[in-house]
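dumping the sequnces here before i forget
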Amino acid sequence: MSTTYDEALANYEPVFGLETHVELGTVSKMFCGCGTTFGAPPNTQVCPVCLGLPGSLPVANAMAIESTIRIGLALHCTIARWCRFARKNYFYPDMPKNFQISQYDEPLCVEGYLDVEVGDSVVRVGIERVHLEEDTGKSLHVGGSTGRIHGATHSLVDYNRAGIPLVEIVTKPVPGTGALAPEVARAYVTELRETLRALGVSDVRMEEGSLRCDVNLSLNRVGATEWGTRSETKNVNSLRSVERAVRSEIERQSEVLSAGGRVVQETRHFHEDTGVTTSGRSKEMAEDYRYFPEPDLVPIAPAADWVESLRDALPELPFERRRRLREEWGISALDMQAALNAGAVAAIESTVAAGASPRDAYKWWMGELARQANERGVEVSTLPVTPSDVARISVLVNDGKLTDKLARQVLDGVLACEGSPDDVVAARGLEVVSDDAALGAAVDAAIGADPDAAQKVRDGKVAAAGALVGAVMKATGGKADAARVRELVLERLNTDA
Amino acid sequence: MPSITRAEAAHLARLSRLALTDDELDQLAGQLDVIINAVARVSEVADADVPPTSHSVPLTNVFRPDEVRPCLTPDEALAGAPAAEEQRFRVPRILDEE
Ligand SMILES: [Zn+2]
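..and the predicted 3d for all of it:
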C-alpha cells in the first residue's frame, strides 16, 4: 500500500459506481437484420437502417428485449410494465443518424441488486437500472502518433458495430467499502460477467470490447454528510483495470482535495500502460442530449406471464452454483473465491465430471496449471489442456501408474501439444516402475552401494532410509513410487515401520 | 410563455454543430419562439383526461425475430460518402472538446 493511498483513506471515504455496457450475443443487430460477427471486414455488416439513411425505419429485435429482461430478472430488478425507447441526440461521427436510440427515464429494468463476495463478507451492490440501446461505430484516428484523437488529421469510421444491441447496467453509488473499494469494484464486474455468462446473453469478452466499464468515483471527507463531486472514467476494459482505475482515482482526487483544490465533474480516460487517468472532455449535461421518446418505435409492454415464464426458466446463478459446488467439493469460501478469480470454476467442475476427485481437480487447476497460466500471462481456462486430460492424469496418479513428479511431466507434454496424457506417457516412457523384481534389484544395489546408511537403518535409525530411497529414485530416473521403494528398503533391512 | 434568448439559440447551434452569425441567431431565436409558443397552445386545449402521447398509433411490442437479413455491400454503403478510405467513411478530424 502506498502512502498516498493510505493517506487518502485516512481522510476520505470513497464512493464508487459502475456503468457496464454489454454487447448482447444476438445474431442480428438491434433494429435491423445486419449480422454481428466480430472482426468482419469494415462496413460489410451495414444497411440503410444502421447507416441512418433517410426513410429507413428501425424494428426492435425480440431476442434483445428478452435478453435484457432476463438480465434484469437475474439482477433481482423490477421489470417495467410499459416503457419506451428514447432518442439521445448528439453530433459525433460514430453514430451516423446523429442520435443514438437508447432509453432515458423509462428503462426496461429498475431497482435490483447483485451480491458480491469479497474476503469472507458479502457486499450487496444496488442496481439502479438496466436499459437497452444500440452500440456505436468504431473510429480509427489517422495521423496521430498513438491512434488517439489527439493530433489526428482525420478519422475513418466502420459502422459494423453501429446498431449492435447494447445493454447498460448502472449500479447505485456504493459507499462504505473503504480501502476495499478497488477490490469490491473488481469483484462486482467479475460477478456480473459470470452472471451474464450463465444467462448465455453475451460472450462477455472484455478484450474484444463486448463488456466495457465506466467507473464513477467520488470522495467524501470522513464524517461529512455531503457527497463529493464525481469523475467518470471511461472504457476501463479489463478486470485488473477496474481495480486500478478506482485506486488511481482515489489517489488523484485525494491529492486534489488535500491541496485545497476542487474535483471537477468530468470524463477521464484510463491508460492501461501507466494505470492512471487523464482528463477528457468535460461532461455534456443530460439536457444537452435533448432526449425525447423515439417516434419510430412503439412502446414495449412485456406481458406479466411472459416475464414470469422467463423468471422460472432462469439458469442456476453463479452465486447459488458456487454455494452448491462448495458443499459438493468441501472447500472454503476463500478457496472458492480464489478459483473464481482465476477463472477456473468451470474447469474444475468439468474435471470432476470427467472422473477426478474434487480435491485432485482443485489441486491441479489451482496449483500446477494456475502456475503455468501465470507464467504465460493467460487465463487458466485458455491453456491447451482439457478437463478430461486433467482427470485422466489424476486417475493415473491414484492408480499408482504415475508419481506426482511424473504427472507434472505428463502435463508438460500435454501443454506442449504432444497428445493425450496416455500418448505422452507412452512417448516419453513416463510410467512408474511398479515391477517389484526390478525395483528390488535397484534397492539391493542401493543398499550395497551405501552400507553405512543400511547399517544405521538396521540399528533403528529409520530416517537414514531416506538416502537409500533417494538413490533408488535417482537410479530409476524418478519413475519409481517412492512409498513402495521405502517399503522395500525397510523390508530388506528387517525393520518394522 | 417561452422566450428564446440569443444565448439559448447559440447553445443549440453549438450542439447542432452549426456556425451562425449574431444576426442569424437573433432571427432564429425569434422564429423558435414563435414555433414553441404555437406548440405550447396544445397544452391549453388538452384537458386532464387527455393523457400525454408520443405515438399516433395505439400499438405496443412490435418486434422482429433475431434473424440475419441481407445487407449492403461495402461499395453500396460507401457510395454516398463524401470521402472514403480503407473501406471506411472518412470524416474530418474530431475536435477534442477540452
Ligand atoms: Zn443494418
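The CA atoms of residues 308 and 488 of chain A lie 67 Å apart.
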